Structures are given as C-alpha cells and as structure tokens.
Amino acid sequence: MPTYVNPDKCDGCKALDKPACAYICPNDLMILDLAQGKAWNQEPDQCWECYACVKTCPQSAIAMRGYSDVMPLGASLTPLRGTDSIMWTVQFRDKRVKRFKFPIRTTGWGTIEPYDGMREPDAAELKDSHLAGEDVWLGVDSLPVPEGVVLEGKSGNREPAGSAADGRSN
C-alpha cells in the first residue's frame, strides 16, 4: 500500500529548498503543493513501497498503510528518526506497543571507500558483460565463461573461449 502524507503534520520542510520526501523518493512521486505548502504523493499507484520518505520525514507526517498480513486492521507501524538511529514503534490491534531501534548507518559519514580493493578500470573491458568487482564479491578468482562465447583478450584481439589465450582447453 502506498504512503499517505498527513496534511495536519506536514510543514513542507520549510527549512529546505524542497521537502525531504521529494528529495529521497526514488520514483519522484513526492512533490510539494506550493499553494498549501504541503508534500503529497502525486501517483500512489506507482509507489514502490520502499518507505524511504517515511523514514526521512522530520515531522513523521508520512504514514505507512501496510498490507493486512504485515499490519492487521487496527495495527500501526511508525518510524521516528533520530540523528543516529530509527526507532520503529509497532502498535498491535490489542494496543500492545513494541519498539525496535536500528542504527541509520554502521560506518561513519565519509568513511566508505566504495572502490577499495578493486583494480583500476580498463577501457578495453567496457564491452565485458561482467560487473566491476563481481569476481571479488563472489569470492572466486575468475568468473566462468560458457563454451562458444567469444572473449576480448587483454591485448584487444578476440579469442574464443577455451583457447590457449584464456588458459583453458576444450
């Protein structure tokens, strides 16, 4: 179920140039109604239900309308974002409340090195179907190549798979 912006809570993130939900939505669904100064989901049918807007809203103005198998009728799930964590509050139909706290991130800001441990890119491999670092993340020395597939050699000449150039034999 798509998210819903409570107009009574939403202030349109007045301190920002655009609402936080509009900035974070991967499908660009959240927009600001300039006349009212409130954000809203312009196309609920297209919502991916990633709940990024729910988690980032500083006013907790965006509600999740969960499916009945996750949130039975009368239950609610509400995030409250802090500077270092998100506190999820679950209210069950019988009014019991449980809270779960999760860190927003496990590494310090600016400390991630996304290309650490990866070799320098090679322009000759641009047409290669493998992803950068794929063999490293899969924990193998090299990825298998199906028989009959033509590989582009390091020198630029094309060698069929299973030839002496790739170190394997048919």
Write up what this structure looks like.
The protein is mainly beta and 170 residues long. It has two domains: 4-103, Alpha-Beta Plaits; 123-166, no CATH class. The chain is built from three helices and nine strands. The chain has helices spanning 20-24, 52-56, 134-138, and strands spanning 4-5, 30-33, 38-41, 62-63, 76-81, 85-91, 97-103, 150-152, 158-160. A hairpin with a 5-residue loop joins strand 6 and strand 7 (97-103). The longest helix has 5 residues, at 20-24. Residues 154-170 have low confidence and may be disordered.
Features:
170 residues, disordered C terminus, single chain, Alpha-Beta Plaits, two-stranded antiparallel ribbon, three-stranded antiparallel sheet, mainly beta, elongated, 9% helix, 3 helices, 2 domains
What is the general shape?
elongated
Say how many strands there are.
Answer: 9
The residue fraction in helices comes out at: under 10%
- At the first level of CATH, what is the class of the largest domain? Alpha Beta
Cross-sheet strand order for the largest sheet: 5-6-7
Uncertain regions spanning at least 5 consecutive residues: 154-170
- The biggest beta sheet, please? 3 strands, antiparallel
The fold-level CATH name of the largest domain is: Alpha-Beta Plaits
* Total of helices: 3
Structural class: mainly beta
Summed up, the domain count is 2
Instruction: Please trace the helix and strand order, writing H or E for each element.
Output: EHEEHEEEEHEE
Q: What is the mean pLDDT?
A: 80
Distance between the termini: 53 Å
Radius of gyration: 24 Å
Strand percentage = 15-25%
CATH architecture of the largest domain: 2-Layer Sandwich
